[in-house]
């Protein structure tokens, strides 16, 4: 069994959503390939400390704001690496190529630099994830009011919606999904159906979100869908999501919520401990979430938050 080399890598993000790639210097393996900057952990060093040190050594900046994100393990012919990715949103100093590398600011879906270092490829997909994943609430709002709220939210910004309406039979759900899909697409958003893989394929939805009962029955990722995510409540379910190669996990419930009366919440401490085990997919916090929980969730290692009731308030 090959020794695993731990590496810290920084995804530098600007307010406009662009992110930084750096070319590998001529004296390194895969010279000329593009990657997220970083380097190996030294003996006894934490991933965050290594990130700060490496970014200062490589490009002369001091990190002032960074949150843990994805952990990606990749086997190259010469080594197996475990990359601890951080989203870096604040730094001091100007970027300088101390190792002769080249820098390029890029946008998701609009890369103009290649080739990308193989281990960094899946991270580009993670960057296409939204910070707030919305779950529908037709059951409580009623269809007319929900559609009004949805229209209002779509006019503010594109969104990614999980259409979860367990109270509807399949015919009613199909009719609603068709209407919502057309509305969301008209505004540049995306929609994931809840638990119905065949219907998602039939309607051409952007993907599907799997409840835990369906997750347990799968031994491979559903094919023919762009985005596939799933709900999780503990480490074993997160492990299964990672094994299937799904795009994200929704972990909770973190705070008390009407959806799970009488069931103790995870709490932020347990949530952070679970996420800190290191997963190759973004993890969302769910359960009693409000928009002002987003920053704290990201400090706990979450990619973002998933919202149900609170998302539609004041829409």
TrEMBL record:
Q: Does the keyword Oxidoreductase apply?
A: no
Please name the PROSITE patterns in this protein's record: NUDIX (PS51462), NUDIX_BOX (PS00893)
Keyword list (alphabetical) reads: DNA damage, DNA repair, DNA replication, Hydrolase, Magnesium, Metal-binding, Mutator protein
Which reaction does this chain catalyze?
Answer: 8-oxo-dGTP + H2O = 8-oxo-dGMP + diphosphate + H(+); 8-oxo-GTP + H2O = 8-oxo-GMP + diphosphate + H(+)
Gene Ontology MF, one: 8-oxo-7,8-dihydrodeoxyguanosine triphosphate pyrophosphatase activity
Question: Where is the Nudix hydrolase domain positioned along the sequence?
Answer: 2-131
Pfam families, per database record: NUDIX_4 (PF14815), TMP-TENI (PF02581)
One BP term from GO: DNA replication
Q: What class of enzyme is it?
A: hydrolase
Which cofactor does this sequence's record say it needs? Mg(2+)
Q: What is its EC number?
A: 3.6.1.55
Q: Which PANTHER family match?
A: 8-OXO-DGTP DIPHOSPHATASE (PTHR47707), NUDIX HYDROLASE FAMILY PROTEIN (PTHR47707:SF1)
The family classification in the record reads: Belongs to the Nudix hydrolase family.
**Any idea what this protein is called?**
8-oxo-dGTP diphosphatase
